[in-house]
Amino acid sequence: METAELIEILNREGRLLADAAAEAGADAPVPTCPDWRVRDLLEHLGRVHLWATRYVAEGLMERVPLPAAPELDEAGLVAWYRDSHRALVETLTGADPELKSFTFLPAPAALEFWARRQAHETAVHRVDAEAARGGDFSPFSPEFAADGVDELLVGFHALDRSRVRTETPRTLRVRATDQDAVWTIRLSDDVPRVERDGTGTADCEFRGAAGDLYLALWNRLPITTLSVTGDEELATLWRERSGI
Fold this sequence. Notes:
By secondary structure, this protein is α+β, with helices and mostly antiparallel strands. It is built from seven helices and five strands. The chain has a five-stranded mixed β-sheet with strand order 3-2-1-4-5. α1 (3-24) runs antiparallel to α3, α2 (38-58) packs antiparallel against α4 and α5 (142-155) runs parallel beside α6. The longest helix has 24 residues, at 110-133. The radius of gyration is 18 Å and the shape is globular.
């Protein structure tokens, strides 16, 4: 996806998140993150936005710690989140396309990385805020959802930190039914190897609309939302060990 489009999505998702959080209230539990309340969600994402803004604004080449969250009442916390989100969107919008900065996933360019990562970080947590509020989740475009699946599988689960591993080599396939997108995940006791194709056999396949795949693979919907064929133990493995 184009960087400008990702920034537009980030802008929309952050606004939806803030609105849902304000409606839910700071003390409302977040069902999709059982240890959190809305206050924790706002503090976490506001800090992440400010952290990302520094990399883009200052061209930082080394990892820096997240800033501290302020101690604010409910109204102040929502306003602080809105300000943090706005600062990030404005910084990304005005950034040099040739930006050089630290990144932690492979990307063609640093600006594209930060726009993509913050768009998906915000989108997933927007779902958390809407879960706390209650009611239906706002939809994603299939293209954006498929991009989020790709970032999760090809990016995060290619890192050493991925815990989705098996003693016996197994193959998991993920297929979007509304996009030309399929991923094959080769599991072993080492880092998963992910390929953007559907060739060969698989021990288990997750199939569904891109939006459902996106939320299920990020553990915001049950895996049973998807069509699961083959070895259901791999579905259990994903549910229990795929958290990022």
